[in-house]
Structure formats: C-alpha cells, structure tokens
Amino acid sequence: MGRNITLYLLGALVLSAVSVKGADVRGRVTSPPGEGFPFAPAVELRWDNGTLATAHLWAEPGMWVGNDFDVSTVCARHIQNIRVFSTGAWPNNRWDGFRVAVFAFANGIPGSMLWPPNGGYYYRPSGVGWTWCDVPVGYTLPASWSAFVAAMDQYYPYPTCDPYAVDGDPVRGHSWQFGAGHWTRLGVDGNLMVRAVVQGEIDVSPVTLGRVKALYR
C-alpha cells in the first residue's frame, strides 16, 4: 500500500466544514437518464455524516478508495452519478482531476471494475473550496449484481492531485481502498465521503425509501 498524506482539519477549517449540510437518503425527481428508461425519482446513498474531518492523499497515484452500496432493497439499479467531496485548495490550490469507477461487490468483498471499460472515467471539477463533485455515470447494474462499490482514484501523483475526504463518525465498515492488486478496508478512521445517486425503473415508494434510510443512515 502507498504512503498516505493526511490533512487534519482544525480551527477555521473545521468551522467551514461544519457548514456543509449532509444529504439524507431521499427520493428526488430527476429527468429520465435516457431513452427506454422510464421516469423515476433518484435516491442518494451515503455512509458519511456530511461533516468533513480529515482529507487524504497518496504519495503515489493509482490508489482507489470507495464505498460499497446494496440496492437489493430498492428498485434502483441505474447509477446516475458518483458524488465525491473534494477540493482544489489543497495541496496545490488548483483542481487537477481524478477518476471514478463502479466496481463489483459480492460476498462482502469488492471485485473487478464494472464501469467504465477503459479503467476509469476522468473528471476535473470546478468551483471554490470544498464541494460535492457530481460525476456523471449513467450505468445500469447487470441483473446479476445487487451491490456495487462507488470509487474514486487520485490519478495524479502528489502534490498535483485532489484529495479524498473522510468524516469524523465511528467507522461503519463500508469504506475500502485498493492498491498493490487487492482491496482492503480503508486505513483511516471515519467514513469515506463518496456517495452514489441511483435511479429505479419504477417509482421508489415511501415504504422502500424508509428501508433505504434505515440502511444508509
């Protein structure tokens, strides 16, 4: 595994981070993702509490971090977006960009990359300060998969890179890191601030949303 570089957010930085409101799991009306995919509300899945505690970078590129999500309790297999909380302010005061991908998740372990087919979707954000980066995905899970890992990759070497963020809550056990050819639990305290927005083929009912809220709370 690569060496991790950590920014501990103290003082004024913590005050600015606290103002970031955590998004609850919810139904959200959106436009249809494409032809042949019926209209349905979107649901945001997350494990973090919305409050930034620490930011991290790898000394070397090529390290993936991600959260696992199970969609078996909700009729939502279309992954509309991966949301990454990051900033261009540290370590070099500019956005450099990162990659996102969807990985398989089965038997409690992340697996191979499902989307995209070319090793990752590169995305360069914009904006000032810490922000949620909404990366378009538009991928529907195969019928054989009911869970996945939404992940981001640093892509560039330190210090020309964008950090990943972690909250200060007790570890929920759904955050992972990939390096040296295998997945392990995320090696820092807290929950990775990476979310997934999924959309179903039918309306997500209030009863179903309640089950999702109970899971991703």
Helix-strand layout with pairing:
Elements: E1 4-8, H1 12-18, E2 27-28, E3 42-45, E4 52-58, E5 64-70, E6 78-86, E7 98-106, E8 109-115, E9 121-123, E10 131-140, E11 147-153, E12 164-167, E13 175-179, E14 182-185, E15 194-199, H2 206-215
Short description:
The chain has 217 residues and is mainly beta. The chain is 8% helix and 41% strand.
Q: Major β-sheet, in short?
A: 7 strands, antiparallel
* SSE order, one letter for each helix or strand: EHEEEEEEEEEEEEEEH
What is the mean pLDDT?
83
Overall shape: globular
Helix content: under 10%
Q: What is the end-to-end distance?
A: 30 Å
Residue fraction in strands? 35-45%
Q: Helical segment tally?
A: 2
Q: What's the structural domain tally?
A: 1
Oligomer: single chain
Tell me what you see in this structure:
The longest helix is centred in the last third of the chain and has 10 residues, at 206-215. The protein has one domain (4-215). The protein is mostly beta strands and 217 residues long. The chain has two helices and 15 strands. The model is unreliable at 10-35 (pLDDT under 50).
